[in-house]
């Protein structure tokens, strides 16, 4: 299958006193249409930097990023982005938050209303559509952020640790929700998370980043049923795959620590 999203030789440097530091180096990655890919790695592996480059919030120092064959040169409606904080507009109701991106698209009022209604229903937000963000729980706020990103019907949904601040029960509810939304919409998803269990449950592939600088250390196919529920987390297959990926992340973290000692850090 032809890749929808392609990264070739992507590197990113940041200026520091006396020079630069390389956050990512020689990253090659393909994401096909309809994929759900999770990216994991130790702190400092460049996970969020990778997502910001794909979102067009920053440009790579080296290499190229293309979406459907077109170079990524900045933010665009073809990529929806959801952060850990949700970043809702506090003065807008739930439905008006979801409609925000649609107001910038060349669609008529009827189509805008149809999309708002559909994505509110899909994310379970119809009963609170006229509430303000301050009246919502943490999980509801993330549902709004996801609905807002999806309402523009992007080619790729980018998730930057969107459930990291939620309690365990709410996080699991959101994991079930995002898989349901992914199945229902067919949207390609690329998600960054520090939680290996979450990555294995959600993803069809799990990409492990090494650190210092960030680079692809492993790309692991998740051989679990496509129609998953939370019970799969207790199966031997799931536990073995989680352990394998945790070992890979731990191995990269140890390697980073050893390099730090060697360089006197």
UniProtKB/TrEMBL annotation:
<dbReference type="InterPro" id="IPR027417">
    <property type="entry name" value="P-loop_NTPase"/>
</dbReference>
<keyword id="KW-0813">Transport</keyword>
<dbReference type="InterPro" id="IPR050166">
    <property type="entry name" value="ABC_transporter_ATP-bind"/>
</dbReference>
<keyword id="KW-0067">ATP-binding</keyword>
<dbReference type="InterPro" id="IPR003439">
    <property type="entry name" value="ABC_transporter-like_ATP-bd"/>
</dbReference>
<dbReference type="GO" id="GO:0005524">
    <property type="term" value="F:ATP binding"/>
</dbReference>
<keyword id="KW-0547">Nucleotide-binding</keyword>
<feature type="domain" description="ABC transporter">
    <location>
        <begin position="5"/>
        <end position="236"/>
    </location>
</feature>
<protein>
    <submittedName>
        <fullName>ABC transporter ATP-binding protein</fullName>
    </submittedName>
</protein>
<dbReference type="InterPro" id="IPR003593">
    <property type="entry name" value="AAA+_ATPase"/>
</dbReference>
<dbReference type="InterPro" id="IPR017871">
    <property type="entry name" value="ABC_transporter-like_CS"/>
</dbReference>
<dbReference type="Pfam" id="PF00005">
    <property type="entry name" value="ABC_tran"/>
</dbReference>
């Amino acid at each position: 299958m032809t890749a929808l999203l392609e990264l070739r030789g992507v590197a990113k440097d940041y200026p520091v006193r006396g020079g630069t530091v390389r956050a990512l180096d020689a990253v090659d990655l393909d994401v096909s249409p309809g994929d759900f890919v999770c990216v994991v790695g130790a702190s400092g592996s460049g996970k969020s930097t990778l997502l910001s480059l794909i979102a067009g919030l920053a440009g790579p120092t080296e290499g190229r990023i293309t979406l459907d064959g077109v170079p990524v040169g900045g933010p665009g409606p073809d990529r929806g982005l959801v952060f850990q904080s949700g970043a809702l507009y506090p003065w807008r109701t739930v439905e008006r938050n979801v409609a925000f991106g649609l107001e910038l698209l060349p669609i008529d009022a009827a189509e805008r209303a149809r999309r708002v209604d559909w994505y509110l229903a899909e994310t379970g937000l119809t009963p609170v559509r006229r509430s303000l963000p301050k009246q919502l729980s943490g999980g509801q706020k993330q549902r709004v952020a996801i609905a807002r990103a999806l309402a523009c019907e992007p080619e790729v949904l980018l998730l930057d640790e969107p459930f990291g601040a939620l309690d365990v029960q709410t996080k699991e509810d959101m994991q079930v929700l995002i898989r349901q939304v992914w199945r229902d919409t067919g949207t390609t998803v690329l998600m960054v998370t520090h939680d290996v269990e979450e990555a294995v449950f959600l993803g069809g592939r799990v990409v492990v980043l090494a650190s210092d600088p960030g680079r692809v250390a492993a790309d692991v196919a998740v051989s679990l049923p496509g129609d998953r529920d939370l019970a799969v987390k207790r199966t031997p297959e799931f536990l073995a795959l989680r352990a394998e990926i945790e070992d890979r992340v731990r191995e990269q973290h140890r390697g980073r620590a050893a390099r730090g000692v060697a360089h006197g850090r």
